[in-house]
Amino acid sequence: MRWGGGFLSIALLCSCTQTTIEGYADREPRSRALTHIVTYISGPISISNETQVSLTAQAAKHGVILDNAFYIFPPTHSYSEQELKRELASRGVDGVLLVKVGNTRVTKEYAGTLFGSLESVSTLGDSNFAAKLIEPSTGKLLWVGEGKVTESGLLIVGNRSGPMSVATAILDELQTKGLLRN
Q1: FRET partner for 125 with CA separation of 20 to 30 A, picked from 1, 10, 37, 150?
Q2: Mean pLDDT for each consecutive 10-residue tract of the chain (182 residues)?
Q3: Does residue 16 form part of some domain?
């Protein structure tokens, strides 16, 4: 009898994460898969950092180099659209992934630029994250999506499964839409 109660306690303490995502790709697919993506994540710092780490790890599994926009363009001053495009081109970046977690705003230094277009990403209904992928050389929107992470159980405080779940959902969706290699 003691074992049964112990297993029941463990089962009640476990947490479960479920992520749903719905995304739409451009009707005219790229001729080749993306190989180098820069991400800009707007959200609470702890969630943004965890999501960045998770995206980087998941991108490697898809054979994609993923860089953090803040390391390339620190928010220490404003940038022009030309500065962003020139630097991204010099690094061989072929995709910019903008991710918005919750109801956050774009860093003012990026207003009016490619990164500032994150303002037009909105979370609708009960979604708690949204993203879009842009081709930096042309500004063409390649993909847009939104999703929801639902966690249940008693051990969800400080749980890293939410950001990992978001990263996996986004990158798997991009692969499904033919934007990443299989």
Answers
A1: 37
A2: 45 56 76 92 85 94 94 87 92 93 63 58 61 90 85 50 84 92 77
A3: no
